[in-house]
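Much of what follows relies on a compact textual record of a protein's fold. An example makes this concrete, so a full record is given next.
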Amino acid sequence: MRPSGRNLAQMRPISIETGVMRHAEGSCLIRCGDTHVLCTATIEDNPPRFLKGTGLGWVTAEYGMLPRATHSRNRREAAQGKQSGRTQEIQRLIGRSLRAGIDRSALGERQISIDCDVIQADGGTRCASITGGWVALRLAVNKLLKAGAIASDPIIDHVAAVSCGIYAGQPLLDLDYAEDSEAGVDGNFILTGAGRLIEVQMSAEGATFSREEMDRLLDLAQAGMADLVAAQKAALA
């Protein structure tokens, strides 16, 4: 039995509320169980300097966690004068995951910045950020299409992410903090709506894993994608 009482292949409740920020071109609040992340998208007419004259657009991301998003207070990284390695790694992951689902030539020479701020953390914050970040990106692109700023839709497919792991010898879908902190194997799976892989992050946290176990976790992740994409579609309907 999982600490949460869920079955092995059961996702936490997912909800995505859109239009939560007045000034952002796209915004949503995604809740995956007790993990809540605010995601916003900002359209900037100027692309990064290295893309000038290429005709290509860019999607980038920033990630942060509020001081009391966790059980004890964490100092703001701005107060420390630098971002942690974990923060840098996560925001790069979000950016490259979302870029995998967009045609940068159709976007044109502009940048869309996705900001993901964790309000409450209970495991899977990077996965929730990617899933919600895609919704914010979709909303921002819709505004470009409506304004006639771009001729065709640059978004190729849905992008979402979910964690899977091995806890107490059992493969689990969508780990919360109690499971993630004790998991023998921990993985994050980023996929498209069509089920194609964008990135897989897997590591042994005290126990090695077999090819068969890895395949089982991937099967769970692909099954979980159906729930995530359904939540994205429902939010945008």
